[in-house]
């Protein structure tokens, strides 16, 4: 994570930063793990090692099922302990943990077997598997429970969420409910030590005889995700085997590890959670700087998170490590010690996501001493192990302090969790933070006040087009997976002055997790004027970016609507009974279905509008794809068109883009400047896609000759400045790429020209370091342009210091351009595999130029 910027909230913190230089030999010159701000594009180039994602990792990530943990699945509930003997993993001497004196992944299963044998407090369950195929271990530590007692706990947990008004008055619940606490470790694979601290703490709790531990376990369940990223732990990479930073994936949940964490947070409903990271010196402990997430109950969150942060700070500083002796600086709390730069605005981070599921104290904890990246390679082993040992101590101190906080504040934590759900169910107003509403937290000012205006309901209308129907179904299933309650109309109805057809979906915003619903469905807001810099993305909207229509109803009697609850979206896939079939190619599922047909040798043609014409002889294959991909094959009388063939893509792209390409069913081989310089066999590719990691100037003479020879008979799809630079260098398309503010990102309004690339595309797009194109040659067609007027719907996009690069400069400019052999994107249609409604633009571009 990136270090916060010091600000006027604390001059003491600024002085501490200045003092760091004296201990340079002991302290990393940059707090790595606090990743530096990206200057151009997301994730460029592809990470190495485990992150050099094979196609199998993408397939596994897309298909890995969620594991139903025992008290989440609605089946027979077992008591505790839930012991099992874990089969060992093969010993891997290349595991990067070993050099640090930490626990390698292959040693975790034997360790957990031993811990289960220490008594009756420790249970181990498999929460899922990683993209690389490794087991994810969920350890529960609690006092023993019979099956009957476990069922009672499950009923109380459900009562807290489903009927919070009554739960608040339930004396038995207040007396006997076990407060859930969640420790998430090692989500960044090369930030190792949380795992070892967790194992050490579990061992202590398994056998401790003192009264405080017995009392804690009698009134709490402690959940430990031992390593959230075993792929990265083994390989020493921040990312998993698919190349994903999973602490950016919670809105999308593209990765199986994130879906497992989502399942834990929904099913276990923790009141308190810690997410253990590294490395920031001194130890950084959230809560954060503004802007604060507007969709959760921030007054309750800040009250508890700040109180626990103080406890963790005291415990960490109380270890006795010092700057002069150990290279360890005092702990810092961004809310208190920094002005801006480390916000909790987007719900893509684990602690911020947890807040939507009732967690009222959630923290990223950044342990102090760098042992990854350059330090891992350059420092002596003895120094690395010294640092790792200190980091384990610091992580353990934060965990122990949190347990003390839970034990001391159990009743109020439970009451506040119930209040979160009560406000949602009742449609109650949020409480703006102030020194009056959150007593005991100093320095609260107007810059900390962020609240949402919740509509009465959201409606996802029954799809009038194939694209909107497919997108609506995908969106509804995603809402349900995030524990948002959705209903479907059994008859037509009116709400908020509009009429809707039977089959439309309704999200009543008087529900416990209204904050989760609003975070996913609302447009968001433009916060460019609120702070000068943001930590990560600032805008997202599943309706705008996934291609579904979402309508906010501000008023109306939702309780009177003819609706019934649904557990999944109604399938929309179908095949016309006769004649030639037409596949729109407006959704990623449709692109994937097309690629499946092409791989099977079906003779498919592309119509002038970009859609695919499928012969009637392939109806049986189409029927299977309609079921598996939930897409529509309509009838058509169209004829002619260009014959399509399977497209093999050579791709110099980010991990998210690679994953999205494979999600659409493309055969992709990653390339880079180094790969091309080593001699790449271009017969393996039909088209080149470049957005990062490939520089024409960096190619040797042989690689340049081979590349230009390939492009003479094949096409290029380019993303951002890197793609445009390669296009210019090879003379494929005459266009000047103008780079906007590199910090800018968000949801923007677009105007589509309706060509073969953007036909049927959403009228909104996602940008990240936006680019636009000027000086277009005579054979260049504008496929899409930035909107005019108020361009930015949600996000953070300011002009640069010299006044250039802002949204005003981009308004009306070309964002996607096409020539005979190239297509260039100034937007981010595949960003982190998230904006599903934009994927088909890239799919169509690849088909068009190949």
TrEMBL record:
Keywords annotated in UniProt: Carboxypeptidase, Hydrolase, Metalloprotease, Protease, Zinc
Gene3D superfamilies assigned to the protein according to its UniProt record, in alphabetical order: Zn peptidases
Source organism (scientific name): Streptomyces neyagawaensis
UniProt-annotated catalytic positions: 366
Required cofactor names: Zn(2+)
Stretches assigned to the Peptidase M14 domain: 101-402
Matches recorded under InterPro entries: Peptidase_M14
Protein's UniProt keywords contain Cell division: no
Region of interest (Disordered), residue spans: 31-58
GO molecular function, one term: carboxypeptidase activity
PROSITE patterns: PEPTIDASE_M14
TM region positions: none
Name the UniProt record assigns to this protein: M14 family zinc carboxypeptidase
Pfam families: Peptidase_M14
Family statement: Belongs to the peptidase M14 family.
Top-level lineage group: Bacteria
Keyword set includes Repeat: no
């Amino acid at each position: 994570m990136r270090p916060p910027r010091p600000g006027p909230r604390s001059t003491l913190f600024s002085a501490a930063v200045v003092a760091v230089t004296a201990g340079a030999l002991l302290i990393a010159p940059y707090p790595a793990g606090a990743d530096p701000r990206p200057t151009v594009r997301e994730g460029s180039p592809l990470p190495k090692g485990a992150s050099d994602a094979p196609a199998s990792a993408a397939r596994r990530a897309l298909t890995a099922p969620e594991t139903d943990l025992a008290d989440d699945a609605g089946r027979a509930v077992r008591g505790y302990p839930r012991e099992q003997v874990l089969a060992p993993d093969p010993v891997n001497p290349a595991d990067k943990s070993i050099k640090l004196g930490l626990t390698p992944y292959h040693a975790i299963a034997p360790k957990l077997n031993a811990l289960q044998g220490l008594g009756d407090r420790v249970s181990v369950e498999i929460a899922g598997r990683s993209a690389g195929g490794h087991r994810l271990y969920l350890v529960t530590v609690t006092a023993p429970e019979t099956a009957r007692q476990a069922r009672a706990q499950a009923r109380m947990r459900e009562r807290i969420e489903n009927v919070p008004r009554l739960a608040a008055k339930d004396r038995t619940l207040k007396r006997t409910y076990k407060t859930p606490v969640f420790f998430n470790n090692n989500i960044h694979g090369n930030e190792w030590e949380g795992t070892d601290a967790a194992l050490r703490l579990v061992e202590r709790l398994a056998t401790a005889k003192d009264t405080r531990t017995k009392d804690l376990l009698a009134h709490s369940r402690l959940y430990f995700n031992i390593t959230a990223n075993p792929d990265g732990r083994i390989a020493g990479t921040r990312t998993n085997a698919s190349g994903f930073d999973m602490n950016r994936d919670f809105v999308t949940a593209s990765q199986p590890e994130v879906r497992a964490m989502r399942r834990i947070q929904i099913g276990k409903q923790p009141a308190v959670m810690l997410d253990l990271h590294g490395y920031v010196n001194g130890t950084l402990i959230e809560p954060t700087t503004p802007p604060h997430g507007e969709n959760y109950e921030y007054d309750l969150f800040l009250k508890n998170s700040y109180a626990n942060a103080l406890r963790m700070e005291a415990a960490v500083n109380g270890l006795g490590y010092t700057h002069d002796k150990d290279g360890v600086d005092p702990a810092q709390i961004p809310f208190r010690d920094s002005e801006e730069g480390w916000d909790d605005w987007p719900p893509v981070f684990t602690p911020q996501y947890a807040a939507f599921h009732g967690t009222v104290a959630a923290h990223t904890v950044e342990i102090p001493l760098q042992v990854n990246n350059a330090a891992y390679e350059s420092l002596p082993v003895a120094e690395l192990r010294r640092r790792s040992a200190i980091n384990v101590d610091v992580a353990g101190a934060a965990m122990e302090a949190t347990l003390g906080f839970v034990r001391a504040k159990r009743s109020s934590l439970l009451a506040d969790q119930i209040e979160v759900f009560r406000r949602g169910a009742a449609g109650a107003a949020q409480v703006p933070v102030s020194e009056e509403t959150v007593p005991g937290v100093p320095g609260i000012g107007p810059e900390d006040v962020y609240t949402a205006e919740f509509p009465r309901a959201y409606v996802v209308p029954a799809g009038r087009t194939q694209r909107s129907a497919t997108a609506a179904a995908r969106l509804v299933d995603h809402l349900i997976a995030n524990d948002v309650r959705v209903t479907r109309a059994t008859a037509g109805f009116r709400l908020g002055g509009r009429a809707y057809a039977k089959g439309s979906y309704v999200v009543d915003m008087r529900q416990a997790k209204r904050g989760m619903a609003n975070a996913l469905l609302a447009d968001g807001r433009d916060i460019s004027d609120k702070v000068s810099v943001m930590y990560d993305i600032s805008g997202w909207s599943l309706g705008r970016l996934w291609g579904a229509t979402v309508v906010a109803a501000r008023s109306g009697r939702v309780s009177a609507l003819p609706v019934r609850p649904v557990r999944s979206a109604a399938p929309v896939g179908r095949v016309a009974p006769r004649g030639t079939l037409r596949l729109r190619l407006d959704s990623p599922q449709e692109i994937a279905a097309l690629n499946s047909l092409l791989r099977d040798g079906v003779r498919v043609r592309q119509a002038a509008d970009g859609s695919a014409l499928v012969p009637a002889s392939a109806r049986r294959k189409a029927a299977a794809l309609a079921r598996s991909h939930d897409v529509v094959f309509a009838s058509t009388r169209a004829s002619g068109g260009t014959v399509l063939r399977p497209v093999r893509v050579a791709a110099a792209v980010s991990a998210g883009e690679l994953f999205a390409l494979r999600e659409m069913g493309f055969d992709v081989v990653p390339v880079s400047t180094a790969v091309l310089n080593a001699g790449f066999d271009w017969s393996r590719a039909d088209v080149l896609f470049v957005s990062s990691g490939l520089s024409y100037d960096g190619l040797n003479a042989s690689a340049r000759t081979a590349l230009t020879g390939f492009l003479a008979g094949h096409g290029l799809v380019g993303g951002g400045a890197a793609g445009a630079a390669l296009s210019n260098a090879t003379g494929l398309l005459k266009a000047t790429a103008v780079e906007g503010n590199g910090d800018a990102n968000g949801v923007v309004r677009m105007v589509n020209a309706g060509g073969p690339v953007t036909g049927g595309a959403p009228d909104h797009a996602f940008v990240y370091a936006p680019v636009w194109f000027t000086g277009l040659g005579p054979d260049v067609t504008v496929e899409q342009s930035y909107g005019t007027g108020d361009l930015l719907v949600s996000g953070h996009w300011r002009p640069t210091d010299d006044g250039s690069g802002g949204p005003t400069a981009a308004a009306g400019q070309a964002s996607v351009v096409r020539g005979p052999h190239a297509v260039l994107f100034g937007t981010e249609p595949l960003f982190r595999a998230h904006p599903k409604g934009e994927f088909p633009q890239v799919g169509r571009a690849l088909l068009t130029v190949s």
